[in-house]
Design brief:
Layout: E1 8-10, E2 17-19, H1 33-48
Antiparallel strand pairs: 1-2
The protein binds zinc ion.
């Protein structure tokens, strides 16, 4: 009566256990499309970042001077 248990993986985004099954987890290894998009978005951000380049106006940013 007991079937072979479905292996589970943990979602790379939220670390929730995701059953490794085509029927129940179309977004595997992510638990949902949302988590997949989050992971993809983070990856793209990493890719776009230029190493060695300081964040624009991080130190000298003065919100007061933006007032027009
Ligand atoms: Zn998730």
């Amino acid at each position: 009566m007991t079937k072979k248990p479905t292996p589970t993986v943990s979602c790379p985004t939220c670390h929730k256990p995701v059953p490794w099954s085509k029927e129940t987890s179309p977004w595997r290894p992510f638990c949902s499309e949302r988590c997949k998009l989050i992971d993809l978005g983070e990856w793209l951000c990493e890719e776009k970042r230029i190493p060695g380049e300081p964040a624009p106006g991080d130190a000298d940013y003065d919100p007061e001077s933006q007032e027009l």
